[in-house]
Amino acid sequence: MAQQSTSEAVGGRLRADALGTGGIAFLVLAAVAPLTGMVVIAGLGIALGNGGGMPASFLIAGVVLLLFGVGYARMSRYVSNAGGFYAYLTAALGRPAGLAGAFVALAGYNCFVAGAVGTSGALTGGVVNRVFHLDLPWELWAGLSVVAVFLLSRRGVDVSAKVLAVSLILEVSILVVFDVAVLAKSGYSLSALSPAVVTSGSIGLGLLFAATCFIGFEATALFSEEARDPDKSVPRATYIAVISIGVFAAVTSLALVSAIGVGNAKSVAQDHLAAGDLLLATSQDVLGTLLTDVMQLLLVVSLFAALLALHNSASRYIYALARDGVLPKVLGRTVSGAPRNASAAQIGFATVVAAVFAVLGLDPVAFLTSSMTGFGTLAILVLQAMASIAVVVFFRQRRDPHWWSTFVAPGLGGAGLIGVIVLAVLNFPTMAGSDAAWIGLLPWLLPILIVAGLAMAGYLRRRRPETYAALGPEVR
User: Fold this and answer.
1) Averaged pLDDT, 174-197
2) Is the distance from CB of 65 to CB of 242 less than 8 angstroms?
3) What is the pLDDT of residue 2?
4) What is the C-alpha separation between 140 and 96, in angstroms, rounded?
5) Closest CA to 29 of 247, 209, 206, 183
6) Other beta carbons less than 10 A from residue 465's beta carbon
7) Can you name the residues that pair with 335 across neighbouring β-strands?
8) At 84, phi and psi to the nearest 5?
């Protein structure tokens, strides 16, 4: 094993000390894709949710997820494993629950990446073709994105973190310019935060869309094995991610509804719903053509950054399960500390899924993105709720005296997440952005995956007891 750092090894270790707090934070914030969230999700929330009250929806969702993050971050000091939710659930609730969660995570994150391939290809093609007067198919841009992700992921997570840091700074910068320009031009209308406005329209849908803007922050724990000081860097990165997303989304959406008028924000957003260009159209009025074109080009950067970050997260689930013997061992090999085989399998799966939709001639946004991203979002919300339960059980078993961080906060966060999940299931076609009948059936995959995970646990316990006994992380 002396040559493990430079050659391929079965069950090899990930590269330790590759990431600090900043690197982990950049990885997860890039997955959240702030610019994409403001262009796509904020517009949907304003149009279909509580209109001008959307900034408060982001704040409320941020508080719920911060409560979840308190217990999640504390548990990271005891469990350091690339398996993320799988590791947490196994440590607290046992191997069957861990594998049930693992199957949900595996499907959710991999579907999310497949949807991101479609989003990246379609929106990149739309922006680049429009700005540079080209007429190239979305499949070409999706293919280029996939190749770039594949090549970067083989260089190691530290290289990805550097690329994502630059991408994140660029996309956040243009939004800050927009926020400042609105403040200087007309100021912010704080009436958007009044109870009457916040509770107008459908606050339930507003909270649902706001919560989807945070999807990806929970991946901090996935990089604990590659962190320089996981006991400190993972909790810090978790808090940085949740607070940054909540505050930034609230301020930018406040600037947006202030620019178009709080009272008529909902109707204006509905006028732009089909084109999905509420922020871009408003930017045209506030910043002018040049900076709006820059915003559109940075939207391409944001989409690619999200694809790369989500790919890194999904790859680590494949790697962790292969290392534990649940998936083929070959996927648990590392080269120079990078899970190259898991990475190749992940991007291969996403490419095949996208190719199937392309061959069938289905619209990448209306079908590929809506189905895969919608299901992935719901799966991750379910995992977050399961993790809240796991945190409470884990620390109650240890009789931990810190009741706020190990019981009250994760309990409240879990209750809030269950509420969001109910909203997501009841409004899944709206969240996914498609009224196709088969897309409305996708939530039923979750109980099927949970049963499959439990069945796998039973199989391993009977037929491969050594593998079953070795499942799960080391707990400090």
Assistant:
1) 96
2) yes
3) 36
4) 42
5) 247
6) 10
7) 338
8) 55, -120
